[in-house]
Specification:
2 domains; 327 residues; binds ligand DP6; Alpha-Beta Plaits
Amino acid sequence: MKKTTAKAPSNIAFIKYWGKADPKLRLPLSSSISMNLSNIYTITTVEFSKDLKEDKVEMDGGMIRQEEMTRVTKHLDRVRILAGIKLKARVKTKNNFPKGTGVASSASGFAALSLAASRAAGIKLSKRKLSVLARLGSGSACRSIPDGLVEWQKGIDSNSSYSYSLYPPKYWSLVDIVVMVDTKEKKVSSTEGHELAKESPFFTARVNGLRQKLKAIKKTMKNKNFEKFGEILEEETLNMHAVMMTSIPPLLYWQGKTIEIMQAIRNWRQEGLKSYFTIDAGPTVHIICLKKDVSSVKRKLAQISGIKMLIVNQMAKGAHFLNKHLF
Ligand code: DP6
């Protein structure tokens, strides 16, 4: 069997996925929209071999935790079923960022694994089928398969819940400056968080408003209306975090620095610097601006103490093969 390597970007959600209709199939309760990130990614090499008695998975130079191992093995099982093989696999994977920081590492991880493992198992899946496969590993991973600006249509069953590209990477010069304020792993994973979403009294109101919001953000993307687009980003972030904060038990992913940076961004806007925040399930702030404003935002950030790391991302293509293998 052929050793195969794939690279997949992480993505940042503009309209977010929070709450599942079916946790096992990872079917979302609402559609979402995201952008693939050029500088946060996973590279994964997979080889199925008759010499292996069990799956062997190595991540970032070490063995992985039992629960992660189970999740990866289950994913390999899905691939084995699709390919009609029983062979075990060797998997080596490398992330270029720290895990569990609100930078969705499961997205790039399961997107890269889906592409590398399916081809290594001898099957060639369409982008749509790859997206469905990646979704079964981690919901947001289905958005890391297509290129650029991506929509995940919630669908009504497993086959109809997948992502496709709305615009290619070159379409718009959007930049995501990822501002890490803490590199420790978060305490409540997004998988656990999704389960709590429905407990919030605000959840239904959120879902009811999403159709309109999806329509509105798509219009701003079509017209490249950056200001209106940015306003929707912030409104959506605060809306999702309001649901998080009001679930039972409540989730509070922000830290003091997170809020300090959110406030700073709003002050910069008063001075004419057009940048907006969006935040996933962690304390990390994603600053969305246009390419021409990156140096101004970086200059502003230099005045804030306690920032652990900055990663500047342009829009990227989705999962693709690499010729160089990790083993
Ligand atoms: C807040 O895709 O990480 O980042 O499907 O359980 O793996 P699982 O969850 P995951 O959830 C992502 C949640 C989010 C919003 C988003 O990316 O849309």
